[in-house]
C-alpha cells in the first residue's frame, strides 16, 4: 500500500519524459525543415517566384477584408500555410489589395486582371468602394478586368460589377438580397435561467442592450436601422447600376417579381442572372480557361492560362525581389497613419483590437517623432469601453497641442466609441457608406442569485457599508442601481459635450441627433458630424495641407514586433517562398475553387452567431462599466 504513491509518481514521470522527448523532436524537426528551406532560398537565385512575361493577375481573395490584421503567431501562420490548411478566420489587408492593383496597372507583364472572389467573405461597403475605385483606375490603363466564378455573393458581386465582362458557371448561383439587420434576442431564455439582467442606458435609439431585455427589436431601433440600411442599399444599387448600364428597377426587391423572372429563366439562377444582365456570359470552367488562354497564352504546363495569384504577386513584386519597382528618395516630413480597428477595450490589446493604452501609445509615438508633422487616425470601430475611448481622445488632444494636425478617417464603422475618438480631430472624413454616430452610452451587468438558489447555493454575510460584498451572486439593490444610472447619465453628458465643443454645435443640437442613433456617412455630413466625404487618401492629403506640407511621405505607426517575432518572420518568410513554389493552391485557385468559402452548415452558422453575440459581453472590461458601443453597426 505504501508503495502506490511512488509507483504512480514514476508512471507520470515516465509519461512526462516521453512527452518532453516527443515535443523536442517535433520542434527540432520543424526548425531544421525551416532552416534548410531558408538556406535553399538564399542559395538558389532561380527559385524566386517570378511574374510571367505575359500573364493575368488573379485577385483570388480569401477571407475578410480588414483595415488591420489581427496578430497571429508567425510559426502558427507558417505551419498553416505549409500544411495547406485553411486559416480559422483568414484576413486580407485592404491596403495590400489596393497596392497590388496599383502595381499591376503599371506592370507591363500583367495584361488582364481576373477577379476570382469565391473565397471573399465579409468586407463592408466602404472597403468595397475603395477597391472598386482602384479597379476602375486599373481599367483606365486599357487593360481588361474579367470576373468569373461558380457563384457570387452580394459583396463579391459589387466588385465583379467593375469588370469589363462577368462570367458565371451555367450551374452557378447569384442573388442580391439587399441589406438587413437581424439579431437573436435572449430575454425569455434569461428569465427561464433565472438570470437577472440590469441595464443602464441613455439614448432612445441605443439598442445595444436590447437582446438582453427584449425578445424583439424595438420600434425605435427598427426606425433608425431601416434608415441607414436603406441609405447603404441605395448606394450599392446606384454604383452597380451605373457600371452595368441598367436602371434601379432591375433590382428585384419584391419576391413576386423575383419568382416571375426566375420561372421565366427555367428556374435556373444562372439563366436568371444572364437574363437580368447581372452577368455577361455563362461559361464552364474549361470554357473560361480556353478564353483566357486566348488573351494571355498558356502557362508552363500548358493546361491552363498564364497567371499569377494574389499572394505570389505580392511576394514577386516586393522591392527586395522585383527590379521593376522604383525606389525613390524619401522625404523627412511624414504624415503618420495610425489604424484603430476593432472593439475598443481597456488596457493594451493586440492588433485587430483597439486598446486604450496600446493605441494611446501609438499616438504618443507619433507625437514624439520629430519627422511626423501630421497624423491621420484611421478608425474602423463600432466602439466599446468609454474609459479606453477617453484615454485615446486625450492623446489626440495632446497631438494637436504639439502643433501636429489630426485628421480622422472613418472606414466601415466609426460609431459610438469610434466617434468619441474621432470627434476631437481637426477634420473628419467619412465615406458615404460609413456607419457612424450612435452617440450614446450604456452599462450592463447580470446577477445570478436566483439561478444559484435553484441549485441550493446562497450568498450571505456582513459588511461595514451598504456596498460591501457587492457582486454577481447577490441581488442589485435600488441604491446601487441608482448609483450606476447616475454614472451612465454623466457619461452621456460628457459624450454630447465632447461632440458639441468639437463640432461647433450646442449640446441641445447634438442631443437631437444623438440618443444612440446610427447614421450613414452621407447623412452624417448633412448633420455636421463629419466635415468631408472621402477615403484614406483624401484624409492624408488634408492632413498634409493642414501641416503646410508640399512634399511628404506617409508613415504607418504600428506596434513594434518583438525580436523573436522579427527573427521568426524573416526565417518563415523566406521559407514560405519555397512552400509557395511547390504548393498547387495558387495554380488551381485561379478557376478551380470548387467550394464556397462564404457558406457553412446551418448549425455551424447558428453556433457562430451565438458565440459572436455572447463573446462581446465577455470582452467588456471598462473599469467603470460604461460602454459606448454600436452593436447594430453591421449589415448583412
UniProtKB/TrEMBL annotation:
Coiled-coil region list: none
Location in or out of the cell: Membrane
Keywords: Hydrolase, Membrane, Protease, Serine protease, Transmembrane, Transmembrane helix
InterPro entries: ClpP/crotonase-like_dom_sf, Pept_S49_pIV, Pept_S49_SppA, Peptidase_S49, S49_SppA_67K_type_N, S49_SppA_C
Record: active site: 206 (proton donor/acceptor), 416 (nucleophile)
Principal cellular location given in the protein's record: membrane
Transmembrane residue ranges: 21-42
Gene Ontology biological process: signal peptide processing
Single GO molecular function: serine-type peptidase activity
Gene Ontology CC: membrane
CDD domains in alphabetical order: S49_SppA_67K_type (cd07018), S49_Sppa_N_C (cd07023)
Boundaries of every Peptidase S49 domain copy: 138-295, 400-549
Family: Belongs to the peptidase S49 family.
NCBIfam families given in the database record: SppA_67K, SppA_dom
Name of this protein: Signal peptide peptidase SppA, 67K type
Organism listed in the record: Colwellia psychrerythraea
Amino acid at each position: 500500500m505504501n508503495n502506490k504513491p511512488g509507483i504512480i509518481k514514476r508512471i507520470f514521470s515516465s509519461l512526462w519524459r516521453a512527452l518532453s522527448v516527443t515535443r523536442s523532436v517535433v520542434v527540432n524537426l520543424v526548425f531544421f525543415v525551416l532552416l534548410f528551406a531558408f538556406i535553399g532560398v538564399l542559395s538558389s537565385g532561380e527559385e524566386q517566384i517570378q511574374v510571367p512575361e505575359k500573364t493575368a493577375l488573379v485577385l483570388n481573395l480569401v477571407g475578410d477584408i480588414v483595415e488591420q490584421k489581427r496578430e497571429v503567431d508567425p510559426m502558427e501562420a507558417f505551419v498553416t500555410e505549409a500544411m495547406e490548411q485553411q486559416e480559422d478566420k483568414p484576413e486580407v489587408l485592404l491596403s495590400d489589395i489596393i497596392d497590388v492593383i496599383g502595381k499591376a496597372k503599371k506592370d507591363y507583364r500583367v495584361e488582364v486582371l481576373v477577379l476570382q472572389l469565391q473565397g471573399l467573405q465579409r468586407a463592408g461597403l466602404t472597403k468595397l468602394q475603395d477597391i472598386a475605385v482602384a479597379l476602375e483606375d486599373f481599367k483606365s490603363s486599357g487593360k481588361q478586368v474579367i470576373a468569373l466564378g461558380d457563384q457570387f455573393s452580394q459583396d463579391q458581386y459589387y466588385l465583379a460589377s467593375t469588370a469589363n465582362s462577368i462570367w458565371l458557371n451555367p450551374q452557378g448561383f447569384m442573388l442580391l438580397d439587399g441589406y438587413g439587420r437581424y439579431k437573436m434576442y435572449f430575454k425569455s431564455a434569461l428569465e427561464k435561467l433565472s438570470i437577472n439582467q440590469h441595464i443602464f442606458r441613455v439614448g432612445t435609439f441605443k439598442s445595444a442592450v436590447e437582446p438582453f431585455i427584449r425578445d424583439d427589436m424595438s420600434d425605435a431601433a427598427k426606425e433608425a436601422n431601416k434608415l441607414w440600411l436603406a441609405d447603404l442599399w441605395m448606394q450599392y444599387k446606384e454604383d452597380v447600376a451605373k457600371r452595368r448600364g441598367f436602371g434601379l428597377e432591375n433590382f428585384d426587391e419584391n419576391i413576386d417579381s423575383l419568382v416571375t423572372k426566375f420561372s421565366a429563366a427555367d428556374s435556373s439562377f444562372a439563366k436568371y442572372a444572364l437574363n437580368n444582365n447581372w452577368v455577361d456570359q455563362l461559361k464552364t470552367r474549361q470554357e473560361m480557361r480556353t478564353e483566357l488562354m486566348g488573351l494571355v497564352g498558356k502557362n508552363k504546363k500548358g493546361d491552363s492560362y498564364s497567371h499569377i495569384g494574389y499572394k505570389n504577386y505580392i511576394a514577386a513584386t516586393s522591392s527586395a525581389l522585383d527590379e521593376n519597382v522604383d525606389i525613390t528618395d524619401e522625404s523627412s516630413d511624414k504624415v503618420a497613419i495610425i489604424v484603430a480597428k476593432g472593439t475598443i477595450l481597456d488596457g493594451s490589446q493586440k492588433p485587430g483590437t483597439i486598446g486604450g493604452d496600446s493605441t494611446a501609445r501609438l499616438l504618443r509615438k507619433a507625437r514624439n517623432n520629430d519627422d511626423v508633422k501630421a497624423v491621420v487616425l484611421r478608425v474602423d470601430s463600432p466602439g466599446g469601453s468609454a474609459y479606453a475611448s477617453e484615454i485615446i481622445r486625450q492623446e489626440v488632444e495632446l497631438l494637436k497641442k504639439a502643433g501636429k494636425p489630426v485628421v480622422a478617417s472613418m472606414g466601415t464603422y466609426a460609431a459610438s466609441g469610434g466617434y468619441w475618438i474621432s470627434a476631437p480631430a481637426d477634420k473628419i472624413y467619412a465615406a458615404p457608406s460609413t456607419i457612424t454616430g450612435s452617440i450614446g452610452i450604456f452599462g450592463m451587468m447580470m446577477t445570478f442569485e436566483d439561478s444559484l438558489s435553484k441549485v441550493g447555493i446562497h450568498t450571505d454575510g456582513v459588511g461595514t457599508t451598504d456596498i460591501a460584498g457587492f457582486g454577481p451572486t447577490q441581488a442589485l439593490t435600488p441604491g446601487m442601481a441608482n448609483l450606476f444610472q447616475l454614472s451612465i447619465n454623466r457619461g452621456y453628458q460628457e459624450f454630447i459635450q465632447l461632440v458639441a465643443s468639437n463640432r461647433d454645435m450646442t449640446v441641445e443640437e447634438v442631443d437631437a441627433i444623438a440618443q444612440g442613433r446610427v447614421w450613414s456617412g452621407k447623412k452624417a455630413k448633412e448633420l455636421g458630424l463629419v466635415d468631408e466625404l472621402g477615403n484614406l487618401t483624401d484624409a492624408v492629403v488634408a492632413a498634409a495641407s493642414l501641416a503646410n506640407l508640399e512634399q511628404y511621405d506617409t508613415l504607418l505607426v504600428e506596434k513594434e514586433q518583438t525580436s523573436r517575432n522579427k527573427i521568426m518572420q524573416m526565417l518563415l518568410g523566406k521559407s514560405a517562398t519555397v512552400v509557395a513554389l511547390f504548393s498547387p493552391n495558387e495554380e488551381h485557385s485561379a478557376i478551380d475553387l470548387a467550394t464556397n468559402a462564404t457558406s457553412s452548415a446551418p448549425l455551424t452558422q447558428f453556433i457562430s452567431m451565438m458565440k459572436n453575440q455572447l463573446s462581446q459581453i465577455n470582452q467588456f472590461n471598462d473599469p467603470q462599466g460604461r460602454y459606448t458601443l454600436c452593436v447594430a453597426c453591421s449589415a448583412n
